[in-house]
Design goal:
The complex is a heterodimer of chains A (276) and B (196). By secondary structure, chain A is α+β, with helices and mostly antiparallel strands. Chain A is 33% helix and 11% strand. Chain A is elongated, with a radius of gyration of 27 Å. Chain B is elongated, with a radius of gyration of 19 Å. The termini of chain B are far apart. Classes of the chains: A alpha+beta (276), B mainly alpha (196). At the A-B interface, helix 1, helix 3 and helix 4 of A face helix 2, helix 3, helix 5, helix 8 and helix 9 of B.
């Protein structure tokens, strides 16, 4: 059957109720005259009728099963707080000092109220969904820093009161992402963020980590207990060594973050063994 | 603030009961979409669970830029896609016999003959749907089952309007071709000018 080319698209748009009055009239007029297009139209209508007659009964108990899962699942806070913890073996192997402090990045996939409490002066890590909805203004607003925690306080989790941070201006966001390490500035492009599972991580946490959602540039923000994870910022120059030293059963994830990180201002205490 | 928004706000603060209200409000639509997308009740249920669980977990990232239903549809489409990828190896065209019982006869009850014919057409369309590519099936279902506008579909799938439009049209034409070959259409529309 030959459908008039001019009307093939119009007829579909007519069926989808996407046409203006004038075009509707044009289509109707044409259908009255053209047998082929009318047959085409009727077939499509029959298909539409079949769709609208379709129905599906929700399986019994589905909502109950879903709610049972929901009740066991923590919501992802609008802003992520990562508390950096000491990882003995790694620190020993690499003479690393734990990273503590605050890294302010944008929210993952946007963020509403900041519902994660900054208990203890632990590090704060929210991530920037750089691929999608980088909300620069929000990022800047979130970039205000809490004071630098002392390393021991940080580990004991005693929670030193955070100093009021200074609010940063939005235009700071534009500057080249860098990390300041003991006064030396490194472009973030040469720095990798290493996220590792704690040894006593639960199956679910592990499952999250091994799922596809953790890919380059994607920091897991939907981990239920961010405190259970550690985060190290390491320059690319040493990450091979890190991997080698790691327990082989644990998979490290390297994530290239894109963000403004000012370690000093944020109270980051970082000692990184640089091979250079 | 309407009831739905109230529920969303409460659920964002961790209120299970409020989330359950949203779940009850949307589960039928979501399940139906998943069922026709996945083609079988088992996968559909898995996709629905995944979609709602994902909604719960990520509720704080829902800021009302789109309607809640659009957001849910997107999560559902994603869940179905994930499942599809997972099942790809074993992706056979599963018939929909399993939920035959769920079929409903249209309200305006026609004569028994026409009724039987309609039911047959409906079954044929369901079967034919499973022969479309996932991309084509998806847009067509959002359009025909969920009655979304081109704009809304573009929002759900994060696609431009032109792509949505051409994809729907192509999907529909493909579906029609399959049905023509199967001799599905009623004489009323098939007699007129068709080759067969």
């Amino acid at each position: 059957m030959n459908i008039c080319e001019e009307y093939a698209v119009l007829i579909q748009e007519y069926l989808d109720d996407e046409l203006s009055g004038a075009d509707r009239a044009r289509v109707m007029e044409h259908l009255a005259q053209c047998d082929n297009c009318r047959a085409y139209f009727q077939q499509l209508v029959e298909m539409q009728d079949a769709f609208s007659a379709m129905d599906a009964e929700v399986p019994a108990g589905l909502s109950g099963r879903i709610m049972a899962q929901v009740k066991q699942t923590a919501q992802i806070p609008a802003k992520k707080k990562f508390r950096y913890q000491r990882y003995g073996m790694l620190a020993a192997c690499l003479a690393l000092v734990c990273i503590a402090g605050f890294i302010g990045l944008g929210g993952f996939g946007g963020a509403g109220a900041d519902n994660a409490k900054s208990e203890s002066a632990g590090a704060d890590f929210s991530m920037l969904d750089s691929a999608k909805t980088a909300d620069n203004e929000e990022m800047a607003a979130e970039h205000s820093t809490n004071g630098a925690p002392k390393l021991d306080e940080f580990d004991s989790g005693s929670g030193s009161p955070a100093d009021a941070g200074s609010e940063e201006a939005g235009d700071d966001v534009a500057k080249e992402p860098t990390i300041l390490v003991n006064g030396a500035e490194y472009p973030l492009s040469s720095t990798h963020v290493l996220l590792m599972l704690k040894e006593d991580a639960t199956d679910e946490q592990e499952k999250y980590f091994t799922s596809n959602s953790v890919a380059a540039g994607d920091i897991p923000s939907n981990v239920d207990n961010p405190e259970d994870f550690m985060l190290y910022l390491l320059p690319t120059t040493c990450y091979e060594e890190v991997t080698r030293q790691l327990d082989e059963t644990k998979t490290p994830y390297f994530v290239t973050a894109s963000a403004v990180i000012d370690a000093e201002e944020a109270g980051l205490l970082v000692m990184v063994p640089l091979n250079s | 603030v309407n009831q739905e928004q109230q529920w969303i706000l409460s659920a964002q603060k961790g209120d299970h009961a409020a989330f359950e209200q949203l779940l009850l409000l949307y589960q039928q639509k979501i399940y139906h979409l998943a069922l026709r997308t996945c083609g079988n009740p088992q996968d559909a249920e898995e996709a629905v669970q995944e979609a709602f669980l994902s909604a719960w977990k990520n509720l704080s990232s829902f800021r009302g830029d789109s309607s809640f239903s659009t957001w849910l549809y997107r999560l559902t489409v994603n869940a179905c896609n994930d499942l599809f990828r997972k099942n790809k190896a074993a992706a056979t065209l599963v018939a929909l016999e399993d939920e035959e019982s769920a079929l409903q006869i249209p309200d305006l009850a026609p004569g028994p003959e026409e009724q039987a014919q309609r039911k047959e057409t409906q079954q044929s369309v369901q079967d034919a749907l499973q022969q479309l590519s996932p991309e084509h099936r998806q847009v067509l279902l959002l359009r025909e089952l969920q009655q979304l506008s081109y704009d809304e579909i573009a929002a759900v799938l994060d696609m431009d309007l032109g792509t949505v439009k051409s994809r729907i049209h192509r999907a529909r034409n493909q579906l029609r071709e399959i049905l023509l070959k199967a001799g599905t259409f009623s004489p009323r529309s098939a007699s007129n000018g068709t080759e067969r």
